[in-house]
C-alpha cells in the first residue's frame, strides 16, 4: 500500500479534519454557541459585497459528515478506479466537489452560497460525463441544465435581496413578516431547492446521473449535491413558516416519495434502484421540513447520508466484481461469494427500511409518528405510509434478487471480497450506519419528543414495513405472475416504472417543438426561400443571363460587332468629355 498516493493523502487529511470538526460541532451544540465571520470585499451603491462564514452546530456536524464520507469514498476509489489511467485527475475533481459543498454549508450569504452551488453544478457535470460516451453526455447535460434552473433562481433572489441592503438572509428572520420581497425570495429558494434535490417535476436527472462512477454516486447521493437543496431550505425554514409555502412543499415531497418508491419496484438496474430510494428519502425530508420540523429533517439528512453511502459502496463492490454488470437479474447467491459485502448491503438496506435500532430507525420512525400526531389530511397520511411500504418492498426485492437463489451470472466465474480498499471503506461506514442514529438522536434531541399514540397507530409503521416486505417477496418470487400482470396492465406498469414519464417530459417533450421549429425554419428559409432569393438564386440568374448573352454572340456575329462598336463609342465619348 502506497501511503504517499494522492488517495491516501486525501483520505488522511479529510478523515482527521472530519474528526476535529465533529468534536467542535458537538461542543457548539452542547454550549449553544455559534461563530459568524464576516469581512467586506467591496461596496457598490451602498450594498456591501462581503465574504461571510457561519460556524454553528448544524454546519459543523454536517461538514464533518461530508468529510468523513468523502474520505472513505476516496479511499474506496483507490481499488474501484484502479484501472483508471489518470487517477489524480479523478481525485482532484472529487476534491473540488467536496470543497464546493463545504463552501455552501458554511455560507449564510446568498452570493457565497451561489459560488458553492455553481461549483457543485459544474463539477457534477464533469463527474457525470467522466466515462466519455453518448449516454454519459446526455445524462450530464440533463443534470447540468436541471441545476441551471436553480442557479437562475438564486441569481434572481440575489437581485431581490438588494432591497434589504445586504445578502445575509440570516439577519432578516425577524423583520420580514409583511415583506413582499422576502416572499418572492423564499419562492425562488424553494424552486432552487426543488431542482437540486430533484423534486417533481425535476426528478429525471437523479437516476440519469448514475452514469457517473459509483464512488461519485456514493458521494452525490449521500451528502453532497442532492442534499444541498434540503440543507438550504433548512436554513430558510423560518421563512417557510412565515409565508405558508409549507402546504405546497408537503404535497410535492409526498408525491416525489410515492413516485420514486413505485418506480423502484419496476426497475432492474441496481444503481437506479438505489438512486430512486435516494429520491424517495429526499421527498421524505422535504415533506417533514414543510411541516415545521427542521431539526428532524436535518437529523434524517445525516442518518440517510450514512446508510446511503454504505449502500452505494456495497453496490459498487458487487458491480466491480461482476465485471460492470448492473442488472439484478444477473445476480443471485452473492452472499456465498461476498459475505462482507452482503452483510454491509443488508445492514444498510434494513436501515433504509427503518429496522429498529439501526441508524434509519431513529429518524424515520419518529417522522412517521409525528405524521400520525400532526394535522394532515388523508391523502398525505396515505402517501407517507404507502411510500414506506414501497421502500420495504423494493429493498426486499433487491435482497431477493441479489442474495438468495442461484447464481445467475456467467458459469465458471468466481468473485470475492479481497479488495482491501473497498472492504475498508465499507467497514468504516458499517459501524456508523448501525450506531450513528442513536448517537445523533441523543445529541440533537437530548430531551426526546413525547409522542402518545393509540396502539393501532403505534404499530402501523412496523405493520406497513412487514406488509411491504411481503409484497416485495411476492413480486420477486412469482416472477411469471408478475410478468403476466405487467403484460395485462402494460400502460399502467410503463407509467409507474418510468417515473410517471418524467424522463420523457424533461427531454423529448421539451425539445420536440424547438427542434421541429428549427427543422421547419431551416428547411423553409435556409434551404428554401433563402436559397431561392439568396446566393443560389442570384447565381442561377447571372448564369442564365450570361448564357443568354453568349448565345446571342455565338449565333449572330453582326450583333457582336455592333455591341463592340457601341461600347467603343461610349468609351471615346467619356474620354473626350
UniProtKB/TrEMBL annotation:
Domain NADH dehydrogenase subunit 5 C-terminal: 394-575
Catalytic activity: a ubiquinone + NADH + 5 H(+)(in) = a ubiquinol + NAD(+) + 4 H(+)(out)
EC number: 7.1.1.2
Main localization, broad class: mitochondrion
GO biological process: ATP synthesis coupled electron transport; electron transport coupled proton transport
Pfam families: NADH5_C, Proton_antipo_M, Proton_antipo_N
GO cellular component: mitochondrial inner membrane
Transmembrane segments: 12-30, 50-75, 87-106, 112-131, 152-172, 184-206, 218-236, 242-266, 273-293, 305-322, 334-359, 379-400, 420-444, 456-475, 487-507, 527-545, 557-576
NADH:quinone oxidoreductase/Mrp antiporter transmembrane domain location: 107-390
InterPro entries: NADH_DH_su5_C (IPR010934), ND/Mrp_TM (IPR001750), NU5C-like (IPR003945), Proton_antipo_N (IPR001516)
Domain NADH-Ubiquinone oxidoreductase (complex I) chain 5 N-terminal: 49-90
Alphabetized GO MF terms: NADH dehydrogenase (ubiquinone) activity; NADH dehydrogenase activity
Topological relation to the membrane, as annotated: Multi-pass membrane protein
Top EC class, one word: translocase
Subcellular localization: Mitochondrion inner membrane
Signal sequence segment: none
Keywords assigned by UniProt, alphabetized: Electron transport, Membrane, Mitochondrion, Mitochondrion inner membrane, NAD, Respiratory chain, Translocase, Transmembrane, Transmembrane helix, Transport, Ubiquinone
Entry function: Core subunit of the mitochondrial membrane respiratory chain NADH dehydrogenase (Complex I) which catalyzes electron transfer from NADH through the respiratory chain, using ubiquinone as an electron acceptor. Essential for the catalytic activity and assembly of complex I. Core subunit of the mitochondrial membrane respiratory chain NADH dehydrogenase (Complex I) that is believed to belong to the minimal assembly required for catalysis. Complex I functions in the transfer of electrons from NADH to the respiratory chain. The immediate electron acceptor for the enzyme is believed to be ubiquinone.
Similarity comment: Belongs to the complex I subunit 5 family.
Protein name: NADH-ubiquinone oxidoreductase chain 5
Organism: Lithidiopsis carinatus
Lineage of the organism: Eukaryota, Metazoa, Ecdysozoa, Arthropoda, Hexapoda
Amino acid at each position: 500500500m502506497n501511503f504517499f498516493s494522492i488517495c491516501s493523502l486525501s483520505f488522511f487529511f479529510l478523515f482527521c479534519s472530519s474528526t476535529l470538526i465533529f468534536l467542535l460541532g458537538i461542543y457548539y451544540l452542547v454550549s449553544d454557541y455559534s461563530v459568524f465571520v464576516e469581512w467586506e470585499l467591496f461596496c457598490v451603491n451602498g450594498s456591501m459585497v462581503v465574504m461571510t462564514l457561519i460556524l454553528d452546530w448544524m454546519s459543523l456536524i454536517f461538514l464533518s459528515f461530508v468529510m468523513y464520507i468523502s474520505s472513505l469514498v476516496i479511499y474506496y476509489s483507490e481499488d474501484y478506479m484502479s484501472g483508471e489511467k489518470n487517477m489524480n485527475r479523478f481525485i482532484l475533481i472529487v476534491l473540488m466537489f467536496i470543497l464546493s459543498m463545504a463552501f455552501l454549508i458554511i455560507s449564510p450569504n446568498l452570493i457565497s452560497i451561489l459560488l458553492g452551488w455553481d461549483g457543485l453544478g459544474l463539477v457534477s457535470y464533469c463527474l457525470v460525463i467522466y466515462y466519455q460516451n453518448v449516454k454519459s453526455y446526455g445524462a450530464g447535460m440533463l443534470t447540468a441544465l436541471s441545476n441551471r434552473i436553480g442557479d437562475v433562481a438564486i441569481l434572481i433572489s440575489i437581485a431581490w435581496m438588494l432591497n434589504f441592503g445586504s445578502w445575509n438572509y440570516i439577519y432578516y428572520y425577524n423583520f420580514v413578516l409583511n415583506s413582499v420581497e422576502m416572499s418572492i425570495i423564499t419562492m425562488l429558494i424553494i424552486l432552487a431547492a426543488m431542482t437540486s434535490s430533484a423534486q417533481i417535476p425535476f426528478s429525471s436527472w437523479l437516476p440519469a446521473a448514475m452514469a457517473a462512477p459509483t464512488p461519485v454516486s456514493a458521494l452525490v447521493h449521500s451528502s453532497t449535491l442532492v442534499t444541498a437543496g434540503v440543507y438550504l431550505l433548512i436554513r430558510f425554514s423560518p421563512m417557510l413558516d412565515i409565508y405558508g409555502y409549507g402546504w405546497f412543499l408537503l404535497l410535492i415531497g409526498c408525491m416525489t416519495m410515492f413516485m420514486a418508491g413505485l418506480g423502484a419496484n419496476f426497475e432492474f438496474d441496481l444503481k437506479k434502484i438505489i438512486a430512486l430510494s435516494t429520491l424517495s428519502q429526499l421527498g421524505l425530508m422535504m415533506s417533514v421540513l414543510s411541516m415545521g420540523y427542521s431539526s428532524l429533517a436535518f437529523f434524517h439528512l445525516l442518518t440517510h447520508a450514512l446508510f446511503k453511502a454504505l449502500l452505494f459502496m456495497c453496490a459498487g463492490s458487487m458491480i466491480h466484481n461482476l465485471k460492470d454488470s448492473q442488472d439484478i437479474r444477473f445476480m443471485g447467491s452473492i452472499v456465498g461469494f461476498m459475505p462482507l459485502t452482503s452483510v454491509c448491503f443488508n445492514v444498510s438496506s434494513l436501515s433504509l427500511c427503518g429496522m429498529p435500532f439501526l441508524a434509519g430507525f431513529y429518524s424515520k420512525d419518529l417522522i412517521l409518528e409525528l405524521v400520525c400526531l400532526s394535522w394532515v389530511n388523508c391523502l398525505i397520511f396515505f402517501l407517507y405510509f404507502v411510500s414506506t411500504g414501497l421502500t420495504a418492498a423494493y429493498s426486499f426485492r433487491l435482497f431477493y434478487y441479489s442474495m438468495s437463489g442461484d447464481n445467475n451470472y456467467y458459469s465458471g466465474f468466481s468473485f470475492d471480497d479481497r479488495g482491501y480498499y473497498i472492504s475498508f471503506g465499507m467497514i468504516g461506514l458499517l459501524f456508523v450506519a448501525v450506531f450513528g442514529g442513536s448517537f445523533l438522536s441523543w445529541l440533537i434531541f437530548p430531551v426526546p419528543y413525547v409522542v402518545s399514540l393509540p396502539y393501532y397507530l403505534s404499530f402501523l409503521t412496523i405493520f406497513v414495513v412487514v406488509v411491504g416486505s411481503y409484497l416485495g417477496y411476492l413480486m420477486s418470487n412469482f416472477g411469471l405472475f408478475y410478468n403476466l400482470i405487467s403484460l395485462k396492465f402494460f400502460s399502467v406498469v410503463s407509467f409507474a416504472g418510468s417515473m410517471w414519464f418524467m424522463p420523457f417530459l424533461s427531454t423529448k417533450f421539451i425539445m420536440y417543438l424547438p427542434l421541429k421549429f428549427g427543422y421547419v425554419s431551416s428547411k423553409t428559409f435556409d434551404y428554401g426561400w433563402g436559397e431561392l432569393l439568396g446566393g443560389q438564386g442570384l447565381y442561377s440568374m447571372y448564369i442564365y443571363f450570361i448564357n443568354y448573352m453568349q448565345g446571342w454572340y455565338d449565333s449572330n456575329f453582326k450583333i457582336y460587332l455592333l455591341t463592340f462598336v457601341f461600347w467603343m463609342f461610349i468609351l471615346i465619348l467619356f474620354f473626350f468629355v
